[in-house]
Each structure stands twice: as structure tokens, then as C-alpha cells.
Amino acid sequence: MSEKSGFHMTPEEFRRHGKAVVDWIADYYERIESYPVMSQAKPGEIRASLPKSAPQKGESFDAMLRDVEKLILPGITHWQSPNFFAFFPSNTSFPSIMGEMLSAGLGVQGMLWATSPACTELETHMLDWLVEMLDLPGKFLSTSTGGGVIQDTASNSSLCALLAARERATNYASNERGCDGKLVAYTSSQAHSSIEKAAKIAGIGSKNLRLIEVDEDFAMRPQLLAAQIQRDLAAGHTPCFVCATVGTTSSNGIDPVRAIGEICRAHKIWLHVDAAMSGTAALCPELRWIHEGLEFADSYCFNPHKWMFTNFDCDCFYVADRAALIRTMSVLPEYLRNKATESGAVIDYRDWHVQLGRRFRALKLWFVIRHYGIEGLRHHVRRHVELAQQFASWVREDSDFELAAPVPLNLICFRHRSGDATNQDILDRLNQSGALYLTHTKLDGKLTLRLCVGQTSTELPHVERAWSHIRQAARRGAYSS
Ligand SMILES: *Cc1c(COP(=O)(O)O)cnc(C)c1O
């Protein structure tokens, strides 16, 4: 312990250890394919390797980094492996990681404009850039009636959208009266589970969330939505919110946003569009059809932390009428009062989401966009879509396998023709082999394998090897017909 720093690490020590961490991360990416993609750790195994109690005396940083290697890596599922095809990607890139480092280094708390103007203004600017980059409706620009904000997740964006919808439908009076049990919300049977969670949290209740059936492409049927709204109105309910999904998690279904939007507009219902993974595709003009009708939306979100090389967490949430959102979320205790807020000339993002405190997340987005440029981002998204389409064509040509859903973008839902047990067996074998990581879903009541191409470094050889492993796993089980 030195006089000057007490127990703290000195800048000089940080310089040394920090460089070792950067080296460690770079090495990790170079050897990432040598690890089993899915962690093979058993429940409790990682904890059992840790000391029972915290150390009395501080330890050396070298010992900590060694323990990351020895104790932590065995319990890591390698999300950044090019052989990771499970769930949806949560990809990252070196520019993003460095933005995250700087954000941690600055240690800024951006709850108000006044608590760090650059944190707010860079964020507003990045979200305006993205409106142009994805060709989103102009009303989502901060210079129009709306604007965007970075949230931690799509789940929280959808919750905020539902809260604003609830307030708008009750003339902002639900906080005086309480929820009366009459409000109803709608989404498709294929929507993400976060919509049900939002309905629970917002006081709508999962019972009052109507799950509208989908067509053979797993997209919401607008006629059924219209009919359900009519039934609810006749029964004295107040329809307040519809969530359409662009790229459902199970099947990459794309809801017809325009037809749904026309229904919402006729009934003055808030339309939220959840494009968590698939929204990124709109970087490419030829894929922008996924957003057809988005001008009807009151709110929209997508996750750069899924498919846009920006490490978790980073969800972009847009509203067409920021006043509705702010009126819903705003509270102003004395200790947060300040001149800038009162002047009305600044954005205070604390009024745009649930929590007060917020990290400087726009930095990593800024770095990613500047490093790749729009061209670079488009190149990689196109490549992923191309690889997925190639994989889909192999499935189509193989008589043992079938596609279980259309493949509009980068997710392939497919299955072996001989039934659930076979598919479960293929999945278990592959994931235990460590060569790749796939997950499953149920479509039309049948166990279905999902392969999503979206990792930063996934290339043709990885996808070819995945297909070859899948076919081998099917053969080893002697299931091939
Ligand atoms: C992944 C996903 C979500 C949840 O994303 P979080 O950001 O983790 O909350 C919601 N909706 C869809 C369509 C998704 O694909």
C-alpha cells in the first residue's frame, strides 16, 4: 500500500495490466475455434472451483487473469465463435469492444443532459444517423416529433411502448384511477415472450393480451386481428396496443406491418414494431421490404447488439411522438432539477425509459458505424443472408431434411423428416460434440432445428462444416432413410 494510492491500482499498473487484457482478448479471438462452442460445464461446477469467501487481502491482477483462463473459460459458451448458430446472434467487433472500454473508462452517468452533455447528444445523433441508415420514417428523427433512445434490451423498449400506449388510451389518467382491467393488447402467437412479460408488468395482465393466429408463413393474420378488436369493443374493452414483429424469434416470420397499421390507425391503437434482430437487414436497400408500412408505427425497436456488431447491450428504440413517451415516464424530484432541463432546450433521457441511471452506450455504436461505414455493414449483413440462403438450398436438395419455414433473411428452420426423436438426437449430439451450437423450436407442433447465421466472423467454411456435421449426426444415428 502506497501513501499516494491507498489500495487503488495506479495508472501505471493499469497501463500494464490493461494492455495484458487487450492482448488476452485478441488471443482469445485467435483461438476461439479451439473451444467447444457450448460450455460443457455441469450445474454448480464453476462455483465449486471458487474460494468459499472473499479474500481478506487484495490479490495480484496476474492471478485474476490466470483464473479467468483456468476457472471461467470452461464455463463460457462461446457466443462469438463463428460456429455459434444458436438462438439469435449477439455479435460484437473490436471497435465496439473499444467503445465499451472507453465508456467504462469515462464512467459517465448520463441520466440527464446536464450530467454529461456528450453522452446525450452523441446518442441523439447516432439514433438520427440510424434513421437514415435504415431508411426509417422521418417522424422517428429527433428533429421531428419523435426521436430515439438507446435501451438495454428490446424487452424494455416494448415495455415502454406498452406503457405509453396505456397512458395514451386512458388520456394519461391511469395513474389517478389505476388500471380498470378493460385495456387489451394484441400480438401474434409467434411474438417474443417479452410482450407477455410487458403486459404483466404494465398492469394490462397476460389474460388481456390477445395472441392472434398466424398464416402458413408464421405472420400475423390481419383479418383475425380486426375481428378480435371488434369483439373486444363489443364487449366493452379498450384496445390500446398492437405489437407487430419483423422477424419472429422462432421462425423469422414477418408480420404485414402495413395491413396491421391500417387497422391500428382506424381504431387509434398504438402500433409498436419489434424488429429486434431482423431490423438490421434494412441497412441493405434490397431487404427494406421487411419494413413496408412502418410509417404507421408509433414506436419501433431493433437491437444493434444482435446483428450489427455492437456488443450487448444496445437496443435502439424510436417513438413517433416523444411527448407521449415523456409524459408517461417523467417524474421530477427536487434533487434532479437543473437549469438546462427547465430551459426545455435539452433531452433528458431518464424520461425515456424505466431506470434513472444510464451508461454511455452511444460510444460503441459511433465506433462501429465509423469503422465499418454503411458499406462495410451492408457487406457483412449481405454475406450472412447469402450464407443462410446457401444453407437453405442444401436443406432443400436433401431428401432426408425439410425446411420448416420460409427463409427471408439469415435464419433457417429445418428438420429431419423422421420426427422429433431424431431431431432431438441430432441436436444433442451436435451440441455435445462442441463443433457448433444450434438450438430448437416447435413449429406446427414439430421439433424444429434453427440455424442462425449472424456471427461476426462466420464464413462459408463454417456453414459448410455445420451442414456436414448435421448430416453426419443424422447418419450416425442411422436415421437416414
Ligand atoms: C431477441 C428478441 C427479443 C428480446 O431481445 P432482448 O433485447 O434480449 O430483450 C424480443 N423480440 C424479438 C423479436 C427478438 O428476436
Secondary structure elements and pairings:
Blueprint: H1 11-31, H2 45-48, H3 61-72, H4 94-106, H5 117-134, E1 147-151, H6 154-169, H7 174-177, E2 183-188, H8 193-201, E3 209-212, H9 222-234, E4 238-245, H10 257-267, E5 270-274, E6 299-302, H11 304-307, E7 315-319, H12 322-329, H13 339-343, H14 362-397, E8 401-403, E9 411-416, H15 420-433, E10 439-443, E11 446-452, H16 460-476
Parallel strand pairs: 2-3, 2-4, 4-5, 5-6
Antiparallel strand pairs: 1-7, 6-7, 8-9, 9-11, 10-11
Helix pairs in contact: 4-14, 5-14, 6-8, 6-12, 14-16, 15-16
The structure holds pyridoxal-5'-phosphate.
Pyridoxal-5'-phosphate binds at residues 88, 153-155, 192, 194, 245, 247-249, 274, 276-277, 303, 315.
Helix-strand pattern, N to C? HHHHHEHHEHEHEHEEHEHHHEEHEEH
Largest sheet properties: 7 strands, mixed
Return the domain count.
Answer: 3
* Uncertain residue ranges: none
**What top-tier CATH class of the largest domain fits best?**
Alpha Beta
Average residue pLDDT = 95
Bound molecules: pyridoxal-5'-phosphate
User: Based on DSSP secondary structure assignment, what is the total number of beta strands?
Assistant: 11
Computed over alpha carbons, the radius of gyration is 24 Å
**Helix content range:** 40-55%
Question: Globular, elongated, flat, extended or rod-shaped: what is the shape?
Answer: globular
The spatial strand order of the largest sheet comes to 1-7-6-5-4-2-3
Distance between the termini: 71 Å
CATH fold label of the largest domain: Aspartate Aminotransferase, domain 2
Strand content: 5-15%
Q: Number of helical segments?
A: 16
Q: What structural class do you assign from the helix and strand content?
A: alpha/beta
CATH architecture designation of the largest domain: 3-Layer(aba) Sandwich
In CATH terms, the superfamily of the largest domain is: Type I PLP-dependent aspartate aminotransferase-like (Major domain)
